[in-house]
Design brief:
By secondary structure, the protein is α+β, with helices and mostly antiparallel strands. It is built from six helices and seven strands.
Length: about 240
């Protein structure tokens, strides 16, 4: 493929400016991607903070059947059985609102107090909780958890990585775990997908636009390299 001198200059200049424009974002993609692939995802999820075996559903713990629960609440539109450190819990959907019932006696659960929340944390966390503290979140929650699960007990482990367990005050369910490596992962994910608002949309226009420009930059660079090789072959030995 032969280009005129003007076309060649235009291609080189376009490639240079595209590279300069995209350089910072390409570096961000490289660093953020490297962080996300080097760290074990189970560690990022905080699996080391809890003993998941204590959350398995055991049929022997149920003393009341799902059929009995549905016969008591025939208007329920949904029934789930969720594991907690204090035993299985039925979650019903009634008129668009959740109702939590004990899997042992079928009675509605009372909101967890601080003592019960710390008891659940102690059963789940394999380490020492002597320095842990707790806080009930009812109106607002940190951005790392969102507000859809409120009310929540935030159990602060007060360790070197600011680890926290979030436990539902309504059901006793472990909602999630957070620590500094997860928070940094969340920032890296935000930078990688270029969604600075919800950090969820991987099809946002900004990412699409930059990806297309990056592809164009790579193609223009490949074309310049091909032209350079062609010229080298045409030069006399």
């Amino acid at each position: 493929m032969m280009l005129t001198p003007n076309q060649g200059r235009w291609l080189r200049k376009s490639h240079k400016w595209l590279t300069l424009f995209l350089g910072a974002q390409l570096l961000i993609w490289l660093i953020s991607g490297l962080y996300m692939v080097l760290l074990d995802i189970d560690y990022i999820h905080g699996d080391h903070l809890v003993d998941e075996s204590r959350l398995t559903l055991d049929a022997s713990q149920l003393t009341i059947s799902p059929e009995t629960i549905l016969s008591r609440y025939p208007e329920a539109t949904r029934l789930e059985l969720i594991p907690t450190a204090l035993g299985p819990v039925y979650k019903l959907r009634l008129e668009g609102k959740p109702l939590y019932l004990s899997g042992q006696d079928g009675r509605p659960l009372k909101p967890l107090n601080q003592q019960a929340a710390m008891q659940i944390a102690a059963r789940l966390h394999p380490g020492d909780l002597s320095n842990a503290s707790s806080e009930l979140l009812t109106e607002s929650a940190p951005a790392e958890i969102g507000g859809r699960h409120l009310p929540l007990w935030q159990i602060n482990l007060n360790d070197a990585f600011d680890s926290r367990l979030y436990i539902s005050a309504s059901s006793g369910e472990l909602v999630t775990k957070r620590h500094d490596f997860w928070r940094l992962f969340d920032i890296m994910w935000m930078l990688h997908i270029m969604d600075y608002d919800t950090r969820e949309d991987v099809h946002n226009p900004l990412l699409t636009g930059f990806s297309l420009l990056a592809l164009l930059t790579a193609l223009s660079g490949a074309l310049l390299l091909l032209i350079a090789f062609k010229r080298g072959e045409e030069e006399p030995a």
